[in-house]
């Protein structure tokens, strides 16, 4: 089973992502990524077996960069097709209905403990 991934960015391509120079870039970019994942699921559908939308952060050797990726089993035709749809058919702008109702709050995003 060979896993592959496609980077989708932090936000839809027609929107402005958080800037690495902003105060609390990491927190803001993470929230944008979670919102983008929700928008992808709303638009394209839930991930099939063998595919997963997730937030990826660059390694500690670089300045932090946070983005949405779709990881998929390359041997699974359905998972690969879903990943390609996410790449090709991702919304260019925030969906007004999904964007307002499903925007994550800082409280929900914080880990307990």
Please characterize this protein's 3D structure.
With 113 residues, the protein is α+β, with helices and mostly antiparallel strands. It has one domain. The chain is built from 4 helices and 3 strands. The protein has a 3-stranded antiparallel beta sheet, with helices on one face. It is globular.
Shape: globular
In terms of DSSP E residues, the strand content is: 15-25%
H/I helix tally:
4
Q: Cα distance, first to last residue?
A: 35 Å
Question: Strand pairing plus helix content: what structural class?
Answer: alpha+beta
Helix content percent band: 25-40%
* Order of strands across the main sheet: 1-3-2
Number of strands: 3
What is the arithmetic mean of pLDDT? 82
CA gyration radius, whole angstroms: 14 Å
How many distinct folded domains? 1
Low-pLDDT segments, ≥5 res: 98-113
What's the main sheet like?
Answer: 3 strands, antiparallel
Order of helices and strands: EHEEHHH
């Amino acid at each position: 089973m060979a896993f592959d991934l496609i980077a989708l960015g932090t936000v839809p391509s027609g929107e402005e992502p958080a800037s690495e120079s902003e105060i609390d870039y990491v927190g803001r970019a993470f929230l944008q990524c979670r919102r983008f994942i929700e928008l992808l699921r709303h638009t394209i559908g839930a991930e099939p077996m063998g595919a997963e939308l997730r937030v990826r952060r660059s390694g500690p050797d670089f300045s932090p960069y946070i983005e949405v990726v779709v990881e998929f089993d390359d041997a699974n035709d359905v998972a690969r097709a879903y990943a390609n749809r996410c790449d090709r058919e991702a919304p260019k702008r925030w969906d007004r209905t999904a964007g307002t109702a499903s925007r994550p709050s800082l409280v929900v995003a914080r880990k307990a403990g």
